Amino acid sequence: MNLTNSAVDISLFSFPITREDIFGNRNPLVLEIGFGEGEFLIDAAQCDRSRNYLGLEIKGGRFRKAVRAAEKLSLENLRFVHVEAEIALRQVFREKMFDLVLVNFPDPWPKKKHSKHRMFNREFIGCLAKVLMGSGRAVIKTDQLSYIKQIVSEFERSGLFRPAYPSPGFIEARTGETETKFEKHFREASQKIFSAIFLTLP
Prior knowledge:
- By secondary structure, this protein is of the alpha/beta class.
- The chain has helices at about 20-25, 40-45, 60-70, 85-90, 120-130, 145-160, 180-190; strands at about 30-35, 50-55, 80, 100-105, 130-140, 160-165, 170, 195-200.
- The mean pLDDT is about 90.
């Protein structure tokens, strides 16, 4: 494959796909689920060339915008895939493939009648555990206090992860060098951002 082509067509591979299939090496691999317009991953990939970065996005417009931005930089350690995340985690990627999984500002579906659409349920957390390395981490950020509490509860109930932070299992996130568009917007509005880190259990 073209090592400067940021878009990966997974239909060209036999499943399960490995990190070598995508990047041609075994460098540490970071996955972002729902990368939006890709600004976070593009910045991260430029700052740290020792890691590979892979992003999943289901919305076509955002995916195409991210690919166009990344192509201008010819980053060999960055790839984007247009796919639904749970399908990819279940069927596409090899087990124990990722060192770190990031989910930045998942849709909170705040109305009670829509809560069933939230990303973090038992099945999805099980998929995360399957694709993370034995020493892997999942990092989630949200501006919704009720949602981060629910996420911590779901991870603890799964029996597959433990929170990295003591009770209540999350912290108010500090300003980082690399931020998403949403994170910058929320900080400019003086809105609190919450972060949780979950470690895989042996």
